[in-house]
């Protein structure tokens, strides 16, 4: 069965987040040969439509309104509903980001449809679309089939590969008018606490520090390694609780869930709540003084040693490879 699928392009600081392109790839699978329509909501975002086309959208629909300059649950859900009313989709895909996690249940609620969230894989099997998602903090995976209504999914960043960018692809970038009213939240200012540089939830490489880094300054060698590898710095809750870094870096059950290609855990013991946020990383390297540390159970490569010796050595070696 072919379907029309709406895919939300998520805009941050004037650029599309990578997960938008991954969502288009998921949208293609759900469409099963039908149409994938990119959706952009914002103040002046239509220029980004072309990029959604390059990554596989067949057409793009934009809702522009100054009330959409900053994300609000009320504003974006009304704007998205206007697109749904105009397009009558059979499928919807968002990124499983902070925005997607907030918006998707509202949209699903308004539509009276179900939602399969945090999807890490999607395949066609036996005539069904099968969605895989982690449960019990990543200790198990469940497979879901949607039998009725709109197929609505949020996809975890860094899991479903985006299609190859093709700049020769073109298509219509149209607009939909939405009446956005009764906003209960007015955003006056946005103050970012997160570190500048690579976004943790979309980073391909993460260097994470735990209580073993011992101080705020102890994160410096980790930052250097992250710079050399073009990665982001993350942390355990132990490091955040000890005030070595900001909570925006926390990875785990009550922090961010990440799936980078490479996760280097430095001075992290590997508590179950930490593993819940990173154990699906593609390659895990653990550096710890304690050979019995739990983190080694999930690591692909383990280095028993002092992180203050090992991390600078790695940085120097990676620098040599880059020259
Ligand atoms: P520790 O357990 O103290 O481990 C420090 C490690 O550093 C040790 O293994 C030690 O051998 C090693 N080390 C010390 N010095 C060096 C050195 N020089 N070189 C190399 N290694 C060294 N935790 C999270 O991370 N994320 C969460 O989201 C989270 N959510 C939680 C939710 C709940 C409800 C609860 C109860 C807990 C949660 N926790 C979470 C906390 C979690 O249980 C652990 O307490 C925390 O992960 C421990 O952090 P850590 O590994 O940095 O510290």
TrEMBL record:
<dbReference type="InterPro" id="IPR018206">
    <property type="entry name" value="ETF_asu_C_CS"/>
</dbReference>
<feature type="binding site">
    <location>
        <begin position="267"/>
        <end position="274"/>
    </location>
    <ligand>
        <name>FAD</name>
    </ligand>
</feature>
<dbReference type="Pfam" id="PF00766">
    <property type="entry name" value="ETF_alpha"/>
</dbReference>
<keyword id="KW-0274">FAD</keyword>
<dbReference type="Pfam" id="PF01012">
    <property type="entry name" value="ETF"/>
</dbReference>
<comment type="similarity">
    <text>Belongs to the ETF alpha-subunit/FixB family.</text>
</comment>
<dbReference type="InterPro" id="IPR014730">
    <property type="entry name" value="ETF_a/b_N"/>
</dbReference>
<dbReference type="GO" id="GO:0050660">
    <property type="term" value="F:flavin adenine dinucleotide binding"/>
</dbReference>
<protein>
    <submittedName>
        <fullName>Electron transfer flavoprotein subunit alpha/FixB family protein</fullName>
    </submittedName>
</protein>
<feature type="binding site">
    <location>
        <position position="211"/>
    </location>
    <ligand>
        <name>FAD</name>
    </ligand>
</feature>
<dbReference type="InterPro" id="IPR001308">
    <property type="entry name" value="ETF_a/FixB"/>
</dbReference>
<feature type="binding site">
    <location>
        <position position="288"/>
    </location>
    <ligand>
        <name>FAD</name>
    </ligand>
</feature>
<feature type="domain" description="Electron transfer flavoprotein alpha/beta-subunit N-terminal">
    <location>
        <begin position="5"/>
        <end position="190"/>
    </location>
</feature>
<dbReference type="GO" id="GO:0033539">
    <property type="term" value="P:fatty acid beta-oxidation using acyl-CoA dehydrogenase"/>
</dbReference>
<keyword id="KW-0285">Flavoprotein</keyword>
<dbReference type="InterPro" id="IPR033947">
    <property type="entry name" value="ETF_alpha_N"/>
</dbReference>
<dbReference type="InterPro" id="IPR029035">
    <property type="entry name" value="DHS-like_NAD/FAD-binding_dom"/>
</dbReference>
<feature type="binding site">
    <location>
        <begin position="250"/>
        <end position="254"/>
    </location>
    <ligand>
        <name>FAD</name>
    </ligand>
</feature>
<feature type="binding site">
    <location>
        <begin position="236"/>
        <end position="237"/>
    </location>
    <ligand>
        <name>FAD</name>
    </ligand>
</feature>
<dbReference type="InterPro" id="IPR014731">
    <property type="entry name" value="ETF_asu_C"/>
</dbReference>
<dbReference type="InterPro" id="IPR014729">
    <property type="entry name" value="Rossmann-like_a/b/a_fold"/>
</dbReference>
<keyword id="KW-0813">Transport</keyword>
<dbReference type="GO" id="GO:0009055">
    <property type="term" value="F:electron transfer activity"/>
</dbReference>
<keyword id="KW-0249">Electron transport</keyword>
């Amino acid at each position: 069965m072919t379907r029309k699928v709406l895919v939300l392009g998520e805009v941050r600081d004037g650029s599309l987040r990578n997960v938008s392109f991954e969502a288009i790839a998921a949208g293609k699978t759900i469409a099963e040969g039908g149409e994938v329509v990119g959706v952009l909501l914002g103040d002046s975002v239509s220029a980004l439509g072309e990029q959604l086309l390059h990554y596989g959208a067949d057409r793009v629909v934009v809702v522009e309104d100054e009330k959409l300059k900053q994300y609000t649950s009320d504003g974006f859900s009304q704007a998205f509903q206007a697109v749904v009313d105009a397009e009558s989709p059979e499928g919807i895909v968002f990124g499983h980001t902070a925005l997607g996690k907030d918006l998707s249940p509202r949209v699903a609620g308004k539509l009276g449809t179900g939602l399969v969230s945090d999807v890490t894989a999607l395949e066609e099997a036996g005539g069904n679309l099968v969605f895989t998602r982690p449960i019990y903090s990543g200790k198990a995976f469940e497979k879901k089939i949607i039998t009725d209504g709109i197929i609505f999914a949020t996809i975890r960043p860094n899991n479903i590969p985006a299609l190859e960018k093709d700049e020769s692809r073109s298509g219509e970038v149209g607009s939909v008018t939405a009446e956005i009213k009764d906003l209960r939240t007015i955003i006056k200012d946005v103050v970012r606490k997160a570190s500048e540089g690579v976004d943790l939830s979309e980073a391909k490489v993460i260097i994470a520090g735990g209580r073993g880094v011992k101080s705020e300054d102890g994160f410096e060698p980790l930052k250097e390694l992250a710079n050399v590898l073009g990665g982001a710095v993350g942390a355990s809750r132990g490091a955040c609780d000890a005030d070595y870094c900001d909570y925006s870096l926390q990875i785990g059950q009550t922090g961010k869930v990440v799936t980078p290609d490479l996760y280097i855990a430095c001075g992290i013991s590997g508590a179950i709540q930490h593993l819940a946020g990173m154990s699906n990383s593609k390659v895990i390297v653990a550096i710890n003084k304690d050979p019995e540390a739990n983190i080694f159970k999930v690591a692909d490569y383990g280095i028993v040693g002092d992180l203050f010796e090992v991390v600078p050595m790695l940085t120097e070696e990676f620098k040599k490879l880059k020259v």
